[in-house]
Amino acid sequence: ISFNAIDSALSSLKNCQSYINSGMDVATQVALDLVESFNDEEDVNSMEKVMLEYATMDRELNHYIKAFEETINQVKREKPENLPDLENLAREKFLEMESKNSDSDLQSNEKYMYFKDQLKEMKEQCKNNFFLSFPILLHHKSDHGNDTIEQIDEDIAVTRSQMNFICPITQMTMKRPVRNKICGHRYEEDAILEMIQTQKQKKRKVRCPKMGCSHLDVKGSDLVPDEAFKRMIDSQNKQ
Question: Which of 2, 54, 153, 183 is the most exposed place for a label (fewest CB within 10 A)?
């Protein structure tokens, strides 16, 4: 039995996943643009609905691909004399997988989780940036009713200290920050990947280069681009 045509079709389906991923990336960028420009929350929520629709399509496509792969492997393993109806066999497996769907599947979609994480971070950074731009809002009244300027300066200093744009490896302002999902620290992408590669050749683990961090095994798979933080750096540079 030749499965070349089926393998080719499955390969095309897998390419469709790249289009779904690209769509989710675009939706994430649009949502960040909306938050950054202080658009209505309703507009931002509409992008979350788009992300969930993409996640639904991704789940369905994954099930469809998996159903056909399992069917092909089953036929190859059993080697029947008469070729069975592959489409019906695959459809049965597909429907079985779809019957077990739950909302938690969509919530755990990697791209959707990244979307939620970046959205939360962008909102926090925009809020901090707002207070830095309008320090008058940070005024505190003393017992005599006068503004406490020292407290204003202290609040601003604390807020700025929370926005450390310096890479702990290069000691320079980051251009392409990535965040470690395990410990939450950020590094310049090229610098941390080079460190991981160098230590891998020596068969050593990489300790998080952020001073005081106890995470002892930084992996490339734990690093995610931090688009929201990059936007904050770009905004700071423009100022």
Answer: 2
Q: Is residue 171 one of the residues assigned to a domain?
A: no
- How many domains would you assign to the chain? 2
Q: CA–CA separation, 215 vs 217, rounded Å?
A: 6
Residue 144 lies in a domain: no
Q: Report whether pLDDT(69) > 50.
A: yes
What CA–CA distances, in Å, run from 143 to 147, 148, 158?
10, 10, 23
CB-CB contact of 229 with 173 (8 Å) = no
What's the pTM?
0.73
Q: Count of CB atoms within 10 A of residue 26's CB?
A: 13
CA nearest 195: which of 180, 186, 208, 177?
208
Q: Is residue 137 part of a domain?
A: no
